[in-house]
Amino acid sequence: MYWSETTQNWQITDGDFVRGKIDCDLNSPDYEKLPLIVIDGNEISWSEFGQMLMTYEGFNFKLEIFDRSDKIP
Q1: Which of 65, 71, 73 is nearest to 21 (CA)?
Q2: What is the pTM of this model?
Q3: pLDDT tens profile 10-30
């Protein structure tokens, strides 16, 4: 993942593959309880993650969730 100065957005790299951790966004309003995604040590808001995915509009995707104790393949 990298920050693009051109688009002013985070971009997915590494063969269109991203690994991260789901955390809690303590800065979101109480009524939203939105997740915070941590990728490569960078905290990404749910909105920023959605913007990253817009590069792939019209594509299919697979989302897998692993237990925190599992080694990610």
Answers
A1: 65
A2: 0.75
A3: 888 868 888 889 998 888 777
DSSP state letter for 61? -
State CA 62 to chain mean position distance: 13
> 32-36, 47-51, 55-59 — which is least confidently predicted?
32-36
**How do the residues of the chain divide into helix, strand and coil, expressed in percent and rounded to 5?**
15, 25, 60
Q: Can you list the positions of beta strands (E) in the chain? A: 2-4, 9-11, 21-24, 35-39, 42-45
Nearest to 51 by CA among 2, 1, 10, 5: 10
